[in-house]
Structures are given as structure tokens and as C-alpha cells.
Amino acid sequence: MTTPFLRLDGLRKYFASSGVLAVADVSLDVGAGEVVALVGENGTGKTTLMNLLFGAFPLDAGRIEIDGEEVAIRGPQDAIDHGIGMVQQHFALVPSFTVAQNVLLGREPRRRDGRIDDAAAEREVGALADRLGFPVDPAKLVAALPIGLQQRVEILKALAGDTRLLILDEPTAVLTPSEAEDLLRAVRRLASLGTSVVFISHKLPEVMAVADRIVVMRRGHVVGGMTAAEATAPAIARMMVGRDVLLSADIPPGSPGADVLRVSGVSAPQVSAGDSGLDDVSLTIASGEILGVAGVSGNGQGALVDAIAGLRRVREGTVEIAGTDTTGRGPRAARDAGLAHIAEDRMHVGLNRGATLEENAVSVAYRSPRFHRAGLLRRGAIHRFAVQLIDDYIVRGASARRLIGSLSGGNLQKIVIGRELDGDPAVIIANQPTRGLDVGSIEFVHRALLAARSRGAGVLLLSAELEEILTLSDRIVVMYDGRLAGPFARGELDTAEIGALMAGSDLETSTP
């Protein structure tokens, strides 16, 4: 029997601070040139397991073998020395450095006088990119690159040494569909060149497309696996969560009432290279309705959200929330009028990871009489609310008075949604609400948004997942270069027609 390149035998990790057994005696083999997909709900130990392999956490028990020999990995440098590279969900690039400087950081080629040879570095990185089929300009500043190209830089950085195993943690979470397809092709190319890949993802179609074998984790344990040839999405989802999961459904339309959001002729300036401004945008959302916004990232979605939420100056036009003109009055006025905001970046905008769960749970409502009286916070009421949120939204591994930094992405998103949907807001901005989440958490988020719609909220849904837009939305608009096409009724356009609008064809100025 052929010895696998990597063997994990009985790995265990217990976090005493949270009382969580994150990895429970897990064993796993990865062959040379094999792509193994590691799937499971958020918080089930997938990333922790790979962090053990990469040396980010010390092992409590178990052994790691490479080519049949036990190795000691006490830190990331040990892992790199043994040919293991890892690309985390959240990039660790230096924006002011070039692509080549980031890829070869700490191992730069030198001239005879000891100075860094930038030209040699660019040649080396360019050759590596060409060999792997990752076209990127080595001389370009990382700050000027879109997210998809920044991820290529991270992968090149992980592969710049003698890397034999590449770990990719939710690699397509921030990519457009075309960028994701490019990445999957690159992964298969790496495998054909003999590099092993562990691919962590919640997106079941891409898992089945890229993997040779699929391994499923649940609550710290490996509970099963299958080859890609025998896998089906329902079977994987059932193994992940221990029950049948509603992956898609014929969701009945909402029952729209009066308008709760009216954006009229809004233009707003561009404030960063990664996003356009707004050009005469108009839309309405009724109570009991979900309006989906489709579009490639960077075409004005951020400006639209910021303009509605009072986070960006509006040059022309007006924003009304539940009948109140909030134009230019800031985020507090928008929230006071009835706006809830599920932010795109839950890690840095939606939450404070250096604060406790109960502090985050009331961060947008601490001035409410429920939580504030006579100039003092009502600590008991805040604690009870946080405990109720944990119970209602099944936030695993959480405690009201502990810092939230160690929670998984899915559990962090549950905190955001529980906080934002409290009090039945009139308008909900749901910006990429399921990005990076597993199938169980996605189902949970969808049910929460549909329940809010049923209670009479108007929902503005922005998502890079076109299938999500098509499944949940009562009407759809398409955003390109700061303008809107539509609205279109559910079923009026197919995927190909929406894709063409996303690329800018036949675009007409939006009408409410």
C-alpha cells in the first residue's frame, strides 16, 4: 500500500478558556497530488485542525507524519520547512508592497552588496506565476489589486518555497464566480504537478468539482467521507449537519405593502479604488419584500449601502427610511428611522472582536431604555438579552461575558443577525449575509431573512451568490459601474440575462 504524503493520527485540541474540544482525535490521510476537501458546519474544527498542522496551535495529543516519518511541528516555520503552506480566510498582505515583495517577504534575493534585488524578485515571482497559471504583475502594488488577484498573491506566497501541501481555507468566499472558476482550475493544475491540496469550503458544487475526496467533520470529529464521484450535495449536507438540509426551495413571494425605503436620484462620490460611486440611482422597497441586488463586486454596492446607512455623503438625491428623510444625517438618524444593517465585513465593521458577546449584542442599541437608565447601562438586562440571543440563534461555543474573537464565522454572523433583527426593523440591509458560511448556517440566515420579511420588514439583499439572489428575492436589480438596471420581477430574467447585465450590456438608468 502506498504511503500517503501526509498522515494525521489522533489529533486533539482542547481550548480551556472556552471549554471547547475543537478537534477530537481526528485522523486523516492526504496523498501526493490529491485534492481533499474538508467540509463541515462553521465551528466544527476544520480550520483548527489545519492550524494544528500548520503549527499555529500546539497539539494536545496525536502525531503528524510526512512520507511515513513522524515530524514535530512547533510553529508555522516548522510547517513551511516540511513543505506545508497555508492561505487563511483573511489575507496577510502588506498593501504598500509590490506583489513580488509580498510573495518573497523574508526570503528576498540579494545583490552582492546585500541590498534587495527587486528586479530578480520580480523575475522569480513572474516565472512562478506563469508556471502555476496565475497571471499577475509582480511589480504592481497589492493595494491596487482587486480581491481575486490579492488571493493569487497569497497563494503564490504560500507556494514560493518547496511547498508540497497547500491548505486553502474558504478560498472562494470573497471571489466572483469567474474568479472562483479560475481558482478551481488552478487547484487542479497544482494537483497535476504533484502538489497536495486541502480545500476547506462550504460551497458544495465547487467541492464536488475540485476534490478527489471529500472528508466531513462535525463537532470536532471526522464523521465520514466519500469520493467526489459518489458525492451528492444532499448527501454531503446531511453528513455535515446530521439531518436533511433545505438547499433550495420554491419560496413563495412576499406580500408587499407600503414603501419603507425610497432612494431617489442618488449620486455619491467614489471614496476608494475598490468601489465605484453612485450615478443617479433610484429604487424602492416595500414592507414584506426582498429586493435583491446582483452585480460583480466593486460596481457601487458599497456606495449604495453606505448612502442608505448614512455612512457616505450623498451628492444629489434623497434617501427616505420609513417615511423619514435621512439624507446626509448620519448613521444614527438612519437607525433611529428603522434601519438595520448586516454589514459585509462582519469581522471589522459588524463586530468588535476585542469585546464580549454581550457588549457586541447591544452595540447599536445601548441607548435604548431596555439597556440604559439614568446615564447607566443596565448590565443585568444586557446579560439576559445576550444569553437569549445565544439560545435563540444557537451560537455554539459562546458565553455572554467572553470575548467573541475565538468564535467561527458562522457563529459571529449569528450574533450580528440576532442583534440587527431585534426590535423588528422597518428596513434591513443584508450585505453578503452568507459569505463564508456553511450550508447549515446559510439555511439559518435565509430563514431569518424570510421571517423578517413575513413580519413586514423590507430587505435589501446584496450577494455575490447569484443563486441566493434568485432564490430569495421578490424583485431584482443589477448593479454595474454605479448604476442600476431594473427592477425585474422574480422569474423575469434567467441567469444568462442577469450575467449579461452584470457585465454592462443593455444597461438602462434605474427607475423606482
From TrEMBL:
SUPFAM superfamilies: P-loop containing nucleoside triphosphate hydrolases
Top-level taxon of origin: Bacteria
Alphabetical keyword list: ATP-binding, Nucleotide-binding
Domain ABC transporter: from-to ranges: 6-244, 261-506
Matching PROSITE patterns: ABC_TRANSPORTER_1, ABC_TRANSPORTER_2
GO molecular function, one term: ATP hydrolysis activity
UniProt keyword annotation of Amino-acid biosynthesis present: no
Name of the featured protein: Sugar ABC transporter ATP-binding protein
Species for this entry: Rathayibacter caricis DSM 15933
